Amino acid sequence: MTLISMNKFLFNLLFILFFTPTCFAQKGQPKLGKIDMEDLLMKQCSYDKDAVAFKLIDWGNLYYDRGNSEMLFKTIVEIRQRIKILKEEGLSYANVTIPYYTKNNTEKISKIEAFVYNIDAAGKIEVNTINKNSTYTKKINNFYSDLIIPLPNVKVGSVIEYKYTLERQTMTNIKDWYFQHSIPTRYSEYEVSVPLIFKFSLQQFTNDSVEIKDELLDEFLSSNQGVMKVKLIHKKFIMRNLKALPNEPFMTTEKDYQQRLEFQLSQIDYGKGDIVNLQTNWGDVIKNLKTDEDFGKQLDVEIPKAEQLITTVKLLTTDEQKVQFLFTYFQKNFIWNEKESIYSFLGLKQTWDTKVGSTGDINLLFVKLLKEAGVRAFPILFSTRSNGSVNKLAPFINQFNTVLCVATINNNSVVIDATEKLFTYSLIPTKINNTYGFIVDDNVGKWILVNDSKNKYKSIVAHNGIIDENGILLGESSVYSSGYAKLERLKKWVTNKSEFEDDYFNDKGSIVFKEQIIVNNIDDASKALEQKVNYSYTLNNSGSYKYFTTNYFTDFTINPFLSEERVTDIDFSYLQDYQYFSNFTLSSNYVFDELPKNITMIMPDKSITFNRFAEVEDNVLNIRVTIEFKNSVYPASVYPEFKEFYKEMFEKLNEQIVIKKK
Q: Do the strands 177-178 and 10-15 form a parallel or antiparallel pair, or are they unpaired?
């Protein structure tokens, strides 16, 4: 869930122990390997016509089976997916990649079956199956791998289907289930069969109708102690005709908004008063992390080669100086390998030697060296914005995907990402702004909301020019980007200068650049990023009139909020502040005929303010525009007002200035 509560979702907290017995209506789905001609002839999803692909069947079945020598049971999950490819863009859904947890063989995938259905030249159903030897596993890191299932002869109109069994060496964890995805789903069903000795809580995040069926069964189950008779609760959760969750501008991640089920084990009741409470807490998480070979144990590893650096840092007077010096050293000497992690898989010694690593490698090393230099510092765990929000009520380490450093400077907690190459440490990384972080300190841990209210996305654009007797604007413009605006543009400039020019300056109609864009203050974090351009701009004309707009080189050339409805919150990540200045001198044979009017617009909740002032004096036009955002997050519930404000604002920004000959 995001920081803004999403009241569209129905949130239920249920215990699986409590149920109402019913009989299951067995409405069978098509058998694996069999398909109806109607599905192959389908051209679009009837209730989501823009869909590029369509999940026809999304089915899961979880049950318990014999465990290993150390565990009474293990859990088995059978998964079946059937997907219709509707458009070229939907072909990516045929690239089947299944992630699973492979450390210590915790999870295994077996019984893989896959099919591709087409209509052949004779109009008959053609079925292609995969060679089981063609599937392969790709290791991602020490914890995770991907199973790749290559599918043959997939094209627009095909239906693909695959099924596999996931064996999990755990009896205390029920796999969560996601009903809703980035493409529509016709039928989604999750079956769960759990011995009543396990007490699970269920969190249900849904806003569409869910059909729930359950029954109590007497079953014989295999365990590591032989066959045993148990009471079993069997539940089905069914949803139908779910629309796709759209990928909307400035949303965090689809995971925060998907209709889903989340399970958490609370206790095991062996009977006769023998009850084991398994509701872990965040203190337990810290204890486990402190003894983990790839986390806490790494902070105790000695790195003799770093002693000289630590000695130098210790000589500095204040904690702020120490943090700044060490951060600058990391910026100049360490390279992030673009991988997020909360662990140091390489080990801090190797990270120091190679000067390359993941966020876990580099930031844990940064924490360690700060501590040795006498600065109070701890690791802080995050789930990045693209990974989804954390549930603070569920103390599970796998919710997090990255670790940063939190240091105390002048009695203030400062979150630092030592992998950042382009900006000062005081700017909170956008990937974790507006999220909660969990500090792994010496005691029970602490949650903090990371929200940058000091730094903003700031942009100033200044146009200066002369409109000559031929109706050509000869201009020069300067763009000053500071705060998050500088960070975003710097990253683009460093990685791809051509894309930088295309994104921010090119494709502006009849503007012709006289020379290359000049970019200054790249290495000076204290100054705004200055971008200077010289150009000519042929004004549009209609008879004796010519007209133009001053809305170019700004951040508001394309309105991203045009859809009639919106499902997700708008999360910009930061506050925003814009100032646009235009100063144009008109040739003596022209006069201004029509000018934009002075105006002030304010959102109903006063969270956005738009001001424009325009005047002409001695054939010189001056326009000043200011736009201020006082919120960084706008809930979906205010989207109608937000959309209308944006529409009017863009109309004002793009109003034409009209001149005519004397």
A: unpaired
